[in-house]
Request: fold
Amino acid sequence: MVDYMTSGAGGFQVVQEELHGAVRELPNQAKVLDDTRQALVARQVPASAFANVDASAQAGAAHARTVEDNARALAASRAELDRIISEMRGTAATVRDWDKAKADQQVAQGADRIQAGGDGSAGDGSAGRPTPAMLNEANRQKVADARDQERQVLDELRQGMSLHHQGSEADRARAIADSEQRIQVYDHLLAGDAKILRFDPAGDGRIVTAVGELNADTRNVAVFMPGADNSMNTYPYQEEMARTFVDRGDAAGGITSVVWMDGSFPPVRDPGSLRPLHLDGLMLTSAEQLGADVRQFVNTELRPMVGADTRVSVIAHSYAGAALGFADRAGLNADAAYYLAVPGIGIPDPANLSNDYGTVRYATVAPNDPVGLFQGGWFHGASPADIPGVVVLDAGRDRENNVVSMWDVHNSMYDPGSESWVNVYNVITNWPDVTATP
Reply:
C-alpha cells in the first residue's frame, strides 16, 4: 500500500501525485467490488442441483451460506472503501485549497511590495511589483491543481456518479467531452512556454498569457482580445494564432503577444439546442465589463512590466470590438487600438472615442464579411469606420491574393500571410507604410 502522507521534521508531507492518483483510481476498485458481488450472487447454484440426500442437502446449504457470507463481506468492503474514498477526497480538496492559498499569497506578497521602493525598472520586480516570472510560477501551480480537480470530475462523470452535471445521457456525453478538452488545455499550458499572468478555472475559465518577453527591452506588445464563443477550451487556438506574430517579429522587429481572455466571451449559439442564436452574443451583456477589465490590465499591470518606449497595440476581433470601444473611451494607454472585423464599438457616438494617450485607431472589415450587416446598428454601437481619424485597412484576400468566401472570411483575419494578417502585423510594429508587406 502506498503511503500518501509521510512524516517529516515539519509534520506531515503529502505526496500529492499519489494522493490525487488514488482519488482517481479508488472508484474503479469500488466498481470491481460491485461487479464481483453481483457475479457471485447471480451465479448461485440452485437447490435442485443437489440430490435429495442428506449429505447433498447439507452441501447445498453450506454453499448458500458461503455465497451469503462472501456477498456480505464484499458489501462491507465496499462500504469501507466508500468511507476511504470520501476521506481521501476531503484530504485532496484540503491540499488543493492549501496550494491555491499559497499561490495566491505569493502573488499578493509581490503586489504588496509595490510600496517597498526600488528603482522602478520595468518588469524587474525591483519596484515591488510581481514580475511575469513570479506570476507564471504561481499560476502554473494553480493550473496543476485545476488539472487534478478536473481529472476527478471527469472520473465521476464517466462513472455516472457526478454531481457536477445532471441531465440526459447526451448532456453527460457533452460534459465528458468538455472535461476531457479542459484537461488537454491544462496539459498544453503546463507543457508550453507561454507565461501565465492570470488564471481562474471557474466557469468557462479565465486566462491571460504572454508569448515572448515582457521587460524594459520589449519593443512591441500585441494584446489580442478574441470574439464571442471563446472560453478556456479555445485558448490553444488563440495562443497558436498569437505565436504567428511572435515568430515573424523575432526575425524582423521583436513582438511579444499577450492573449487576453480574462472575462466572459458569450456564446453565439447554444450547444445542443435548436435555438440558433444566443442573445448574449448579440447584445453588450459582457462587453462593458470586459472593456473595464482590459483597460485596467493594460494601464496598471502591463505598462509597468515594459519600457516607456514599448509600443502597445490592443487588437479586438468581432464581439470584443465593443469591449475595446468602452476601454478606449475610458482611457486606454495603448499606442494603437485595432477594431478587427467588429460589429460595432459599443458606444453610439464615435466622436466620444478620445483619450489622453494619443491612441491611433485602426479598423478592418472585409467587403463580404456578414458582420458588416451589424455595423452602425443598435446592437453593438457605432461602426469603427465612423471614428474620427480612423485608419481603415483592407481585408478579405488570402496569402495567394484570392478572395476569401463570405462563409470563411470573418474567422480568417489571422490566417498567416493573408491581407488582414499583414495589416495586423504592420500595426503592431508601426511599419512606416502600414498597408505594405514588411
In short: DSSP finds nine helices and ten strands in the chain. The two ends are 63 Å apart (CA to CA).
